[in-house]
């Protein structure tokens, strides 16, 4: 094929991503994961070798800035020792453990707490005995779970022998987004790509993710830097990070089907509510736009905005419209 006939880079990216998505929908995640691993393995190995040979810090500047703020908050006082995980053995399997369930987890969905934004769950129909419990922890994976529930500041303070959830967060966040996308396609087959994207934004909102961590009782096991007599209060971003890390660990100790079965029960009520526009979790969703106003104009034509003509043409092509 002549070079002049090869589509642009962004177009090729769209085609490749669409192909991967179609393969995942029709054949399942496990089927598409194997060829992708073979495809990206050489690149991942090179990147890992480059990272191991470089002198780059373990965490980024933003994490270190927050760590320095946490140290100032301690004001020179030694933090409380790291507490062990509060797990209960499963009656049916002596080698497995589980996180204790809360007596009334629904209260934490709407509870007003310092530093936490209010989540409106009035339009979400939660089934009885919600939420589904976190999958059991095998004794051989207790180290992974301990790391998943340990904040990165603990590793920076106590030393590298203490594991943290810093590396698991990115894995869990990607898996969570994939689960939301999979459920969105199943629960809203008639939605347009723009509507599916809006649904995904609602269900991946940080406030919702943090509340899910609360009702799963992850905060009771979360290990963070705190003063000895300080109340067991944790910030929402810490709980959200722990939730993503737990998602990653569940996948690492089991497989995608087990993770998807659990997340399916956990997220289906929220995905259904978002698909029917009964969930307004994100801050942007709080601004209801007049359907006859700006939103309708944007959906009919691509406006002449600050973006250049090339960008407007690309957006127009993706939405099946003509640039204004």
UniProtKB/TrEMBL annotation:
Residues 166-255 form the RNase III domain. GO terms for molecular function: ribonuclease III activity. PROSITE patterns: RNASE_3_2 (PS50142). This is RNase III domain-containing protein. SUPFAM superfamilies: RNase III domain-like. Gene3D superfamilies: Ribonuclease III domain. It comes from Roridomyces roridus. One of its GO terms (biological process) is RNA processing.
